[in-house]
Structure formats: C-alpha cells, structure tokens
Model the fold of this input.
Amino acid sequence: MSNKEYTTIIIDASKYMDTKSVPSQKDTDFALALKFAMNTLNKQLLKNRKSDRYAFVIYTPTDAQFLYYNEPVTLSRVKEFYEISVKTHDEAIYTQGDYSILNALADALSNQIANKFIRNIYIVTNGIGSLNETHIGFDKLRNTFESYPVITNLLMLNNEHNGAMKRYFEDLAVTFDGRFNIFDFETFTARGPPLKLISPRCMTDCTLSFVSGESQGGDIHVKVQVYPGIRAQSQVHGHEYIQDFKSKDVARVKRQNKYYIKGSADIVDEIFEPAKYTNETGDSENDKEYVKDSEYTYGFKYSQRNVVALLPELEEAATLETSPGINIMGFIDRSKLPVAYLTDEPSYVIPGAKSETENKVAFNSLVQALIELNCAAIVRYIQKEAHEVQICCALPQSINVGEKWGHGLVLHRLAMKEDEKIGKFPEFKLSGQEKLDSTMEAFVKNMKLRNDTTEPDVLKNSKVGLLESKPFTSQEDAQPSLENMLLSSCPATKRFNYYVEKILFKSLGEASLTDFVSQNQFIEKYLTNDEKHTLLDLGNIFDVKENLLYTKDHKSTNVIEADLKSAFDIKFIMQAKPSRKRRKTDSVFGSEHNDQFDEYFDIEEILAG
Done:
C-alpha cells in the first residue's frame, strides 16, 4: 500500500462566512477555516515529506478556484494560497450565485491525479449558503468515488441556520458507502492528531512448533506470521530549519558524511595521526582524497574467536543449513527473566492470515495458557533460509482492538556471549536478597501514577487493527496512559513546534518573514500575548505537583527510598580535596620555573636598579 498522501482542502470564502458560529472563538468563521487550512499546510512544511501533494480549492457562490502544483509544499506556495483566499473573500458579494459547495467538491474529485496516493478531502464551511444541483453530475461523482479511494471529511461550523444543509449532506453521505464523513468543526479541531495506516510487511511466514530440528512429522505445529513491531511516530523537529538572511529563503538543515583517505598514503603507513590534519596552514585539505559513496563499504571489528570467510565457497561451507521457523525449547517464569537480556527491536507473532480456525484456536490457547501461568517461552527463531539462528523469548500478550480481543506473542532477541561487549548481564538465577527485592518492589508500587490503567499482559495501541487511516485520534485513545507517557515525547519540542507554526501563520500577512521576526518585543507581541499560561504566569516553576500524580502518599516514598539506599548500602562520601604540595625551590641545573617568583625577589628593587 502506498504511503504517499494527496490532500485537497476546500474552504468556503463566501460572505456568509463573516458570522461567528463558535461562541468560544473571537474570529469569524472564515478566519477559523483559513487558520485550519494554513496550519495543515504549515505542519506539512515542518514534516518536509517530499512525496505528499496538496491541492487548494477556494469556493464562492460565483466561482470555485482550484489551485494545485505538482511539487512539495513550500512557504511561498502557502503564502500564495493565503493571499488568494483573503482577496477572494474580500471581493465576494452576498448572492446566491450559480455555484454551491457541491461544485467545489466535484471540482476536487475531477482533479484527482492518477498516481498511487492516500486521498483525503477536507471541506470547511458553516453551511449557510444555498444548494444548487444544476451543474452537478452525481453519477460522475459516484464513479470518481468508486475509481479512487477518496475519503471526504466535511467540517461543519455549528451555525443555527445550517440545518437544511446538514441534513442534505447526511443523506448524501449514505450514498457514498462510508467514504463521506461529517464532523463538528470545534469537536474535530479539539481532538488528537490523525492516525495514519501503515501496512506492515510480513517478515516470516513459518510454523511454531515444539520440535527440535526441521522435521515436523506428527508433532504439534501452528502456522504463524512474524511482523515488525509498531514504532512510535517520530515528532516533527522545527529546529532543523534555517533561514538565509541574504536570500530570505528557508531551508532544512542537511547532513552529509564524507569519507576520505590520505592522498600520499602507503600500505605500510597504518597509523593515522590527526595532529597532522588539525594545523592552521590548510595543507590538510590538499592531502585528502575523498571517496565516493559507491566506492567504499562498511568495515567490521573482529576478534580471535571470529572466522571471516574470504571466499564465497568457504562462506557457503561455514554456513549452517537453516529454514525459517520458530521452535519452542522451554519456558521460564517472567519474574526470573531480566529485562537487561532483551535486545534489538521486538517483533510480534500472530496466527497465519489464511490459516484455519483450528490453527487460530491452538495459537490463542497457547498464549492464554502462558498468560495464566505468567511464563515466557524460550524459542529458536530463524527469519530467512540460511539465516542466523536467534535465541529469543516470546512474551504472551492480549491485544485490545476496539471492542474485540486478540492474542499474540512479542518476540525479543536475548543477549548472548557476543553481546557482552555492550554490557554486563545478570545470571538466570535468584540473587538471594529477599529484603532487597521486596524493598524495590514497594518503591516501584508506591510510585505508580494515579491515571495508570496499564496491564502488563494487555497491549492497547490505537494503531493495532487499524484497517484505514482516521482523520483524528478518538477521546479514548487520547487519554494520558502510561504507555503514551513512556513514548519518546519531549514537551519542549512540542512547544517549540507550536510556536513555529504560530509564527508561520502570523507571518503570512507580512511581506518578509525575516523582518517579521526581527521586530522589537516580537515574543511579547505575537507569541505570548494571547496565551493563557506562559512560563512567567506560573506560581512556582520548580513545583511539579508530584503529590497529585501518584496513587499513594508521596511523602512515604522518601522513607522507602531511604530504606532502599540502606539495603543497597549506598552512601554518599565527600571526596577529600588533596592538598597541593609546594615544589622544592632548590634547582639543580639552570633556572627553574616558579609561580611564586615575587616571594624571593623584591620586584620594586629590581625595577629601580
């Protein structure tokens, strides 16, 4: 499935949008619609996805302008869309006209590009204008909907005079088989970010068995598929953009690695002396010979225990004959499995997509039994034919997909002897320190968050079981669970990106972005003037209100922390500062450097003489 997106934004620029339908907002309906459209494009600017395409439709009762450029979104294009929208709205008149918002939708559907894209259409209107179906060919609209998988989202501003328009679109949505959605504008903008469907590719299609070896025979085996784990969506980094003050252009920071060798190097000369290349004469560049990307390969480190095959025949002879599969070798209590042994990125195992019902029942029964016994399976996993053998642990998980439940195994590679170079791992046995374990367990339980509803054996991820992309995150998925808190999320980065988007939107009405951000008291005027809370409004910026975060009394945590330090025998010792010994002043040969020179000579007497 293609991951590229083709998004069309339709805004109502008629004079009927001069009303204020949202009581909590001071702006008019047109200003809210324009801000939504521009912020959508500004987010795309920060993402900097070159493959995505955006189209813009400006509707008035007398015309519908379609704007599209077959290129990535740039700041100049966003500014062009903004200026045309404002100009069109200012020149619009109160009239019924020959066009309706349906004409703008038909125009957007008729201009679908033929490439493979995920297609979305957003319509923002208050629904006060009239409906004119004379120029609309509904058969053509339906054919376009059937030819392209287009998802249309109508964002209706809640106005008391749009009842007829809303009922019309609700009846129209039924005929488009679930590909036409109607949302309240205020509710839609208050929800979380969209959920993008990314179809994972199956890594391995094999069998899960209890046998040792490759022969299955009459032993128990289950058909399974292995998929890569769902990764957290990376954040947008607004700080990776710079502006050239001469050309006034905004560009993204580019990083490029260049490799070079010494131009006068000899095969005998194996010692690289960096001191020769850090001088200030500039001769180092003359002795560098840069290597093209196609001419080098990545090296490796080797030890006495590793064998490097120099010939393909030797490598083939030294490679074990293996076939894809997962073989269960034993089971272990989850409490006796140290977390430090889990390495690499995990993958998950589910029953085969085309397997029979008996196969799925057998797999689910195995996972359910492991959950009830609180055990994990130690397995031998081979991903591809003639591939390396990995020793992994399979952790059972119940997967929550809406109102339905499923079962799966999370596959983690276990650290082996060759992994000791990256860390020291505990042994698979009890330490014998019962007091220490119980104290640590009490400390962890006491730090449990109030809103933590996480279950160790249950996986709740909004992207699991996602069959199609959603324009927003539902309220249930937006709750701050512990799983979401532990994701790589930086509040400072989010706040920075928020301010960057705010600067970009407010700069669209200015002549130059550089001159706009260079104004006196820019932060106070444009960033914090309309904010409810800033850093200066807080009572105490060092008080994080941690007593409101945890389930138990936070003061008792200090007592448990002291007991934990005592059990670990952790003591803080002030490091004694060594006294500096005075050097002997008796020189043997010649003069000796002495910092206390004036201690032995009268400087004034020497200067006077």
Residues 301-305 have pLDDT under 50 and may be disordered. The chain has four domains: 4-190, 197-256+286-420+453-484, 423-451+556-581, 488-550. The CA atoms of residues 61 and 96 lie 6 Å apart. The first strand starts at residue 5 and ends at 12.
